[in-house]
Amino acid sequence: MRTLGIDCGTEYTGYGVVELCSDGKLQYLTCGAIQVSPKQPMARRLSATYRELETLLRNYQPQQVAIEDVFYAVNAKSALKLGQVRGIAMLAAAIHGIDVAEYAPLAIKSAVVGYGRAEKAQVQHMVARLLNLAEVPESPDAADALAIAICHLHTSATLERQRYDAVPAGAVPLR
Questions:
Q1: Which of 26, 73, 113, 154 has a beta carbon 3.0–4.6 Å from 79's, enabling a disulfide?
Q2: Is residue 169 pLDDT above 80, yes or no?
């Protein structure tokens, strides 16, 4: 299963594509950050981010998209802007007929590091390790997006195993 992880941001939106191979290993495909100028009107920033995500979806054809869930924000204006970026990420996926999974920051860190309150550097280090990367991704937003994709792939694999294990002996699981 191929997953596009998206770490939404108003200036930098990280992305990372990871595939879970049939042997259970994770394969890194790409990552980076979409940068938009805070000097541009919000509509232009959203449009630029949407176009970049559209290109990624077309080029990498993920089966799933995963994003970070809304978290508590002190500044309401920042939270609204972040919500707009999340909305265009969801829209891009929906237009391609792809389901979107959302994960809380604590769940992402727990899935990747094993500790929900892990520091950013710990997440970056574990992402590089889990994907056998020679070095940590240059952009922290890209590393976060890869962590989101890894979290989704691990969660999906676990849920699939549980679903399969719940089938009575001799029965054929529905897919």
A1: 73
A2: no
